[in-house]
Amino acid sequence: METLQIATDARGVARVTMNRPEVFNAFNEAMIADLTEAFAQLGEDAAVRVIVLAGAGKAFSAGADIQWMKRAAEASQEWNLADARRFAAMLDGLARCPKPTIAQVHGVALGGGVGLTLACDLALATTTAQFAVSEARFGILPAVIGPYVVNAVGPRQARRLALTASRIDAQEALQLGLVQQVVAAEAMDTAVEAVVTDLLAGGPQAQTEIKRLLAQLAVGPITHQVRELTAQTIARVRTGPEARDGFTAFLAKQPAPWLPPSGEAP
């Protein structure tokens, strides 16, 4: 793809690298389209188990490309609505991807770059990474990424981040819940590999079911409808072939059938 580099290893670990380093991987219409297509294709590929999203060069993503923003400012409201819907669909595609996703963040994640981080299931950042919900500095607002920010850090912290548009460091991002792990730059590959190893140990269909179920659960009362949803889900999954194979392997003290062959190169 024009704006991405994509490689999948023998274990089914796909690495999607945003490849516009000259603009710190700021995204435009082309990158939005490429990310939408890439995650749709990888999500449907039975050979893919895990997807890692990273950025080439000095940054993860500086958010919206300045030239793209300039075109938006000069375009009609109808053009902007269609454009915003494409961006929203891209983030939704990442969030709803049936495969586990990892954001590997270094440098900066600004504006929409924060949205990309939060649309992934897990996010790791280097100790020197910086984050900002920066839209207010341009006279706009973090509308499309807003729900992801609120879900990650809660409404009060989301208001602080969006209203001040100030940068925070990786440690504060960890404390707030923007990322789940902070590591030294030289240890990032090892840390990502450890997460990948844990993910590969789980059943792929089980992980898809986990993502689907948790997306339907909100913080709040555990109602009859919620209890019924969870009961129906586990009853259906328990009788599926992956669960049967998993339990059989466990009782026989054998590796689960979905595990990569021992010693397979990353």
**What is the 3D form?**
globular
Structural class: alpha/beta
Strand content: 5-15%
Assigned CATH class of the largest domain: Alpha Beta
How many E-type strands? 9
- Major sheet attributes: 6 strands, mixed
How far apart are the termini? 23 Å
Briefly note the CATH topology name of the largest domain: 2-enoyl-CoA Hydratase, Chain A, domain 1
Mean pLDDT: 95
Element-by-element helix/strand order = EEHEHHEEHEEHHEHEHHHH
Count of discrete alpha- or pi-helical segments spanning 4 or more residues = 11
Question: What does this protein structure show overall?
Answer:
- The chain is of the alpha/beta class and 266 residues long.
- Helix content is 48%, strand content 14%.
- The protein folds into 2 domains: 196 residues, 2-enoyl-CoA Hydratase, Chain A, domain 1 (Alpha-Beta Complex); 49 residues.
- It has 11 helices and 9 strands.
- Strands 1-2-3-4-6-9 form a 6-stranded mixed beta sheet, with helices on both faces. A 3-stranded mixed beta sheet has the order 5-7-8.
- Helix 3 packs parallel to helix 4, helix 4 packs across helix 5 and helix 5 packs across helix 6.
- It is globular, with a radius of gyration of 19 Å.
- 33% of the residues are buried.
